[in-house]
Amino acid sequence: MKKIKHEAQLLKKALSIGEQYAKKRGYITFDEGTSNKIKIECIYRLLVDDKVIVPLASDKEDGPNMKHKLVLWIQKQLPEGHPLLVD
Length: 87
Prior knowledge:
Elements: H1 7-24, H2 36-49, H3 63-77
């Protein structure tokens, strides 16, 4: 898995956008006490179910790979020249 520049900030952005996406789909928002681990898995599974992203192989479905997949997804969603995409 290749290290991505600004990965932590991109993941934070992916979680934010993912929560908004889930809310528009009719899901209730996460509680303040919900861990990022749970948010990552829920948003990942929602995006896979909606066929927005391609699922990981079943033996690769773990926290780090789900995080990486969400980061790759948000990179494609951000406009060209966004500060998180600039080296």
